[in-house]
Structure formats: structure tokens, C-alpha cells
Amino acid sequence: MHRIEIPEGLIARIIARRGRLHVFDAIEPARTAHVVVDLQHGFMAAGQPAEIAPARDIVPNVNRISAALRQAGGVVVYIQHTIDAEGRAAWANWYRSFSHPERRARVDATFAEGGPGHALWAELDVRPKDLVVRKRRFSAFIPGSSDLHAVLQARGVDTLIISGTATNTCCESTARDASMMNYQVIFAADGTATHTDAEHNATLGNMMSLFADVMTTEEIVALLAKSAG
Question: Alpha carbon of 122 to those of 29, 38, 50, 63, 170: distances in Å?
Fold first, then answer.
């Protein structure tokens, strides 16, 4: 699990700007979705080309948030990073430039639909009523990436709880775009993971400052219980 450390100066600046640290005192659980980002075999399993080892540690917290939200009346959505010909063509510059060809080929094969790393991690508590949405880019909301926004709007969702991996890529990109699309966003500090504490904490600071209410699993579960009651 990451060691969470947010600079005291940043916290003081946030409180000076909005008068408090946390943004949301209550939410509507029935209009809330827990968006679990990319907790798939290709990111979680030892030896996979995109392995993020700390992500294995957050699974109990992710499952706890999902259970609390289901009980309160909300929906759980699992996001699956998916690489296909359409995605590679639409995002060709990134595919050409940000990884050497040998690794790129391994990652592409891993996250192809039906590939060895595409499936959701087996330790996730996935239930029959949960939703699964495939995405082609880091953010699930950018046009051409997924139909997540349409899925959520059809259910009247206005609040998102973000967990998953990697904190500073797909989780951060999805949370930023969600905020700018007028969703209320809660970012799970101990329900997200990336390679290092430094990268993780940098994103938590960005989220806390401008895009999301950063909460621990304990705080999220308590907020859901209070809001449902």
C-alpha cells in the first residue's frame, strides 16, 4: 500500500481557498457510480509487461467500497483497458512514440480482447448487476475512448468514486475529465495505485487541489452510510 503524504503547504492553500479540506458532506448513493479503473490481469499479475505491483494491495479496499455502494443503492462499473486496431489508428502518435516496438507488441497482445491480460483481476468481487465498460485511451471520458458517459447518464449518475490503476494515468485522466464534465468526483487515496509513492502522492495533490475530493476507503464508506441514512 502506498504511504500517503500530502504537503502541509498544499493542504493549507486548499483550506484557505475553499474554507475546508473535503468537498462533499453528503452525496446521493442512488446517483453514484464506483468506477474501478483497469484492475486487470495485465496490470496486476507478476511478470506481466504492464505490471503495477502495488495495485494488488488495494483490491480489498476496492471491494469494500463496491460493497458499501451496492448496499446504499449505487452502481459499480469496471473499466477494461482494451487495445484494438481502431484504438491504435485513432491514437497513432502515442502508440508510435511512447514505447519501443518490442514492448508495444507485448502490451498490445496482452490487452487485446480475449488476450492474457484483458480479463478483470480474479480477486475483484464482481457481481452480476455490476457493469463492464471497455476503453481505448487513458481517460474513459474522452471521445472515442468508451461509452462510459452515456452509460452513466442513462442511469442518472452525477457522482463518481474513482479507484484502480494507475493512479497517475488512467485514474487521474478519467477523474480530471469527469470533473470537467460536471460530475462530482471522489478519488480513493488508498484505493488507487501506481509504481511509486512519489507518483501516487503527486496525483493525490492535484486531485485534492482542483478536481476531486480525496478520501480514504474508511471515509468513503462512512460518507455512503451517512448519505444513505
Answer: 26, 13, 17, 12, 20
Cα separation, 208 vs 108, whole angstroms: 33
Cβ neighbors of 215 (< 8 A, separation 6 or more) are 22, 186, 187, 188, 189, 223
Domains in the chain with CATH codes? 26-82+121-228 (3.40.50.850)
pLDDT digits (tens, 9 = 90+) for 191-214: 999 999 999 999 999 999 999 999
Give the whole-angstrom CA distance, residue 137 versus residue 79.
11
Amino acid at 207: M
What gap in Å lies between CA 62 and CA 69, rounded to an integer?
11
Is 186's pLDDT higher than 90? Answer: yes
Given a cut of 90, whether residue 156 has pLDDT beyond it is yes
Angle between helices 59-72 and 217-228 in degrees, nearest 10 = 10
Asked if 162 and 185 touch (Cβ cutoff 8 Å), the reply is yes
- List the one residue out of 173, 203, 9 whose CA is nearest residue 91: 173
